[in-house]
Specification:
The complex is a heterodimer of chains A (351) and B (515). By secondary structure, chain A is an all-alpha fold. Chain A is built from 15 helices and four strands. Helices cover 74% and strands 2% of the residues of chain A. In chain B, the strands form six sheets. In chain B, strands 15, 18, 21, 22, 23, 24 and 25 form a seven-stranded mixed beta sheet that branches. In chain B, strands 6-9-10-3-11-12 form a six-stranded mixed beta sheet, sandwiched between helices. The chains are: A mainly alpha (351), B alpha/beta (515). At the A-B interface, helix 1, helix 10, helix 11 and helix 15 of A face helix 1, helix 10, helix 11, strand 20 and helix 14 of B.
Chain lengths: 351, 515
């Protein structure tokens, strides 16, 4: 107590411009940006097509589905849980939205029902986790399988449903400001940016967001501070489900068909990889939407680069698994380092 | 160790008594980024003596222990153990050389027996198969020799241990063959009076057999009772080494804090009439029919042995644990409390004993931790108002004199006393009528303790009814207006301040005069 002068704990003051930037972007995010720059430089040095406007536009279009899932997954992981069922939820949403658009002829209805279906499946996840007290990983592993089956059951004869509505397709592959050599900005990317901005605001500035960080950081303390953990889990998994539903709607719009499986399988892996790469930790309490979005861009760029360089899909799958391990390993390393500094601080101040 | 025949029945070897130092600490220094933890520390510890290390938090006691145990590496100087250089030993090498640390928070394997926990890593075996009979025999012999027989069921699973039993396992682990120096880090914080006596008897026995014993604690009366010499540290420096018989607690405190500090504390008298917390006929898994009242401005102390159910009572009242019967009234009105958020709505605040585990979100900021319980009042349409948060938290930081570089500082990086104050700030922000404090000065140093006492006193003065759970008798005697003693799921009749003494409380706690 006696010698806790502020200078001993405060990081040295930052008149250094580099440090100021670091603080603004966040140290973890800065390393993501550096990684992205290096990756872009590497890819661009190997192929001239990377910087083609059309290619960049494609990257933007490709990342929006994973990006939407990443927003929800960030909230889930910061709260200390995991939702592996999002890919399957997207599959169900893809099918039901396609059915609505094709059979009922309502685009708005298709979007609404897709999102609603996702939200309902999220509520089911939350109910299993809270009422039956099943660990979130196990619960969503179970629904990963169950929801995938559900998608096939709903789709007539388990087949993809074609969607011909042009307005609906615009959501998935439309662009605005197109023309004069400029390929335009994908509508789906704009949708992602809006959702991510809302997500960032919610996580950083609302009572709900702070409660998510608190429950992830220390559930016992959060409960004793009056946070209703079960109610929070319902909100969190419902949001994750709804965003997965929206992602499923986008898949339908992109491919012009309601897909029970193809297009949504394995999305959970990419979303989870992005969140960990973006600075979150499995234990919860840490992670940001900004970090996840940077990681999503990084992953989409990598995937695009591998395609441009003609690397076969099988290798890409291996690379994706490898990346998840790397992402979590970096997180562990960071945590161990933080613990060490904390232990040192504790040792320096006594017990 | 752990060869085919297992370790000998009792491993303590009697040394030839000499006055030569067994542990020689020469000019030891250690620095962490931004902090100089130890500088130029020199002293020795002899065979057959109990050496106490005292100092406030941050004085360097823990750092020194961790250097001796091999957890940390020193930057300067050297450490000789029985003439052997151990300055840069690994934890395993330090243990082999004969240094054993009894940690404050022992690591216990949850799903194996006590006997296995004691011999973890060195189970007696025969041809690669664990010899369970030998294991039980060795473990029993060790406990008997330590004087801990009857306190620990050798077949009990690790996760069922009380804090005292965890400690017993940790002590038994240390007393394996080859021990020359044994260090106890705050060993009595979870022990009852009786267990503490047994520990002291063991320490004297070890000393008489020629071991060097290092004893680290915040409790000065224990230091005076058990030690032969006292090493006083302050800010990583050696302030002095005193013969225990040639000094007084007051002198030691003066040397520790570097200033005069009244060790006693006198509470301002305040008593108001209206009953704020009224608990009637409360029953739960741990409690049989508990009734008590706390008036506005009153501090009701809860004494009792560790494990008597005091923390559980606090959590039952706060809605964290289930209440099977009974009524809780706040300021005359029945409060329907089923969850902690109900309790907060009913104007109850609760600062739990386990500050890091249940009190704070260590990775989040001071501001967030301090405003957590009142988030919803600091927001409009669910959006937190930064200005309102700052306006709420900043005055509390000032009035509680919390030392933090900024409101954004991670709480985990503050000292123990300041962390405790952040917990208090959280509840002050909620403006409670009832405040439950569970061991509010646990692992807080002497200087900060006095500050927290003053704080609790002024909270009571402002009209809050305070339920104070403490295992430190001097703390209860200094702060509480009345004291109840919990034993066997019940509480005694309140003891008025003027009738309260350590003896009276202890008798109740041991069930010798259960009311």
């Amino acid at each position: 107590m006696t010698n806790m002068s502020s200078s001993s704990i405060q990081p040295s003051s930052s008149n250094n411009p580099l440090k100021a930037i670091t603080r603004f972007v966040g140290a973890e995010n800065l390393s993501l940006i550096i990684a992205l720059v290096l990756l872009v430089a590497l890819i661009a040095s190997q192929t001239p097509f990377f910087f083609a406007p059309r290619n960049l536009m494609n990257i933007g279009m490709n990342l929006s589905v994973v990006g939407l899932l990443g927003v929800g997954m960030t909230i889930v992981i910061v709260s200390g849980a995991l939702d592996i069922s999002v890919g399957s939820i997207a599959g169900v949403a893809s099918v039901v939205s396609a059915m609505l658009v094709t059979y009922a002829g309502t685009v708005l209805g298709g979007v609404a029902v897709g999102v609603l279906a996702g939200a309902i499946l999220g509520v089911v996840n939350a109910a299993i986790i809270t009422y039956l007290r099943v660990n979130a990983v196990v619960a969503t592993l179970a629904t990963l399988s169950a929801y995938r089956g559900l998608a096939f059951l709903i789709a007539p004869e388990g087949r993809p449903i074609g969607v011909l509505d042009q307005n609906f397709a615009w959501l998935g592959s439309g662009r605005i400001l197109e023309g004069g050599g400029f390929p335009g900005i994908p509508v789906s990317l704009i949708l992602l940016i809006i959702i991510a901005a809302i997500g960032h605001f919610v996580m950083s500035s609302t009572v709900f967001g702070r409660a998510v960080y608190s429950m992830g950081g220390n559930p016992a303390a959060a409960r004793l501070a009056g946070i209703n953990l079960n109610r929070m889990k319902f909100y969190i998994f419902t949001i994750s489900g709804a965003l997965a539903g929206l992602a499923g709607v986008l898949v339908t719009a992109r491919t012009s068909s309601g897909q029970p499986a193809s297009g949504t399988q394995g999305l959970e892996l990419e979303a989870i990889t992005a969140v960990f790469l973006g600075g979150a930790i499995l234990a919860g309490g840490k992670g940001t939407i900004v970090g996840t979005m940077l990681a999503v861009v990084l992953l989409a760029t990598l995937s695009n680069g591998m395609n441009l360089l003609g690397i076969p899909t099988f290798y890409q799958l291996v690379a994706k698994g490898f990346l998840l391990v790397v992402a979590v390993a970096i997180g562990q390393w960071r945590m161990a380092r933080a613990e060490k500094t904390q232990a040192r601080a504790a040792a320096a101040t006594g017990s | 160790m752990g060869g085919p025949t297992g370790p000998p029945p009792f491993p303590l070897v009697s040394f030839v008594m000499t006055d030569t130092p067994v542990l020689d600490i020469r000019g030891v220094g250690k620095a962490f980024p931004n902090v100089r933890a130890l500088s130029n520390l020199s002293f020795d510890v002899r065979r057959g003596e109990v050496m106490a290390f005292v100092g406030e938090n941050g004085a360097g006691k823990s750092t020194l222990l961790k250097i001796l145990s091999g957890d940390y590496q020193l930057d300067e100087g050297s450490v000789l153990l029985d003439g052997q250089e151990v300055s840069h030993a690994s934890p395993l090498a330090a243990r082999r050389a004969g240094f054993r640390l009894v940690r404050q928070e022992p690591e216990i394997v949850p799903h194996v027996s006590a006997a296995e926990n004691i011999f973890v890593g060195e189970l007696p075996q025969r041809g690669g198969v664990v010899d369970f009979r030998q294991l039980r025999a060795d473990a029993r012999a060790l406990l008997v020799e330590c004087g801990f027989d009857g306190l620990l069921d050798l077949d009990a699973q690790g996760d069922s241990f009380s804090p005292a039993q965890r400690h017993i396992v940790e002590i038994a682990r240390a007393l394996k063959p080859g021990v020359k120096v044994i260090a106890f880090d705050e060993p009595t914080s979870s022990l009852t009076a009786d267990e503490t006596e047994r520990l002291f008897a063991l320490i004297r026995k070890l000393r008489d057999r020629g071991l060097a014993v290092i004893y680290v604690t915040h409790r000065l009366h224990e230091v005076m009772a058990i030690s032969d010499r006292i090493v006083i540290l302050r800010d990583g420096r050696l302030i002095g080494v005193k013969e225990t018989t040639a000094t007084t607690p007051d002198e030691v405190v003066r040397m520790m804090v570097g200033r005069d500090l009244s060790y006693g504390f006198s509470r301002t008298e305040t008593t108001r009439d209206e009953v704020v917390l009224d608990v009637r006929g409360l029953k739960s898994r741990w409690h049989r029919d508990i009734s008590f009242q706390i008036r506005a401005g009153e501090i009701l102390g809860f004494a009792g042995l560790v494990g008597a159910g005091r923390t559980e009572l606090a959590k039952v009242i706060f809605g964290e644990y289930h209440r099977s019967a009974g009524e809780i009234r706040i300021a005359g009105k029945p409060a329907h409390i089923r969850t902690p958020s109900d309790a907060i709505r009913a104007s109850i605040g609760f600062a739990p004993e386990d500050r890091k585990g249940e009190g704070l979100i260590l990775v989040r900021s001071v501001m967030e931790n301090a405003s957590m319980a009142v988030f919803s009042t600091l927001a409009r349409w669910g959006v937190l108002r930064n200005r309102m948060m700052v306006d709420t938290v900043e005055p509390l930081i000032k009035s509680l004199e919390i030392k933090t570089p900024s409101l954004e500082q991670e709480v985990g990086k503050l000292s123990g006393g300041n962390q405790q104050k952040v917990v208090l700030a959280r509840w002050l922000a909620a403006k409670p009528k009832v405040l439950i404090l569970d061991e509010p000065t646990r692992a807080v140093d002497v200087g900060a303790k006095a500050e927290i006492y003053r704080l609790i006193d002024s909270l009571a003065k402002s009209g809050i009814a305070i339920m104070l759970i403490s295992s430190e008798m001097p703390e209860l005697l200094a702060l509480a207006d009345r004291i109840v003693v919990m034993h066997g799921g019940r509480i005694s009749a309140p003891i008025e301040k003027r009738d309260a003494s350590e003896e009276a409380i202890l008798n109740h706690a041991l069930g010798q005069r259960a009311a």
